[in-house]
Amino acid sequence: MFPLKVIVFVALVSIVAAGPWGQICAGNPRNRVRGCDRHGCGHYGAPRLGGKKHLGVDVICRDGSTVYAPFSGIIGGRVNPYRKNNAINNGLLLRGSGFCIHMFYIRPVRYSGRINKGQKIGVMLPMQRVYPGMTSHVHVQNCNRSNPTRNL
Q1: Closest C-alpha among 71, 143, 66, 67 to residue 114
Q2: What pLDDT score was predicted for residue 3?
Q3: Which end of the chain, N or C, is surrounded by fewer C-beta atoms within 10 Å?
């Protein structure tokens, strides 16, 4: 029999390790982050062209998959990751539960209103049409551009 202290400790570590956000994409219940492929890496701070750094995390998501609200709050409107239009140039601003994030590469169900954690907010757009060979993903970026990884 395990002592109560050990059981409580293991439960707390499991909760903290999982992060406060819910599942972001159907088929990826643990919000796994894209590794490295020929287009780059999906972790926060990964190098980008021109000496820039990746200011979000790329949560693996198959093209056409359902995308869920990671927390309860409100949809603050549309956000576009690119100046030039393409097949994946869409996303949402979400605020609530102490968080503010941009989620890119999704076709939203709507652009305003209240959301609940786990509610469908959109569908993953066809990343393979724009970036063949890149692991398809939803880009998640804190509004203040800090590292969102611990929340996953």
Answers
A1: 71
A2: 55
A3: N
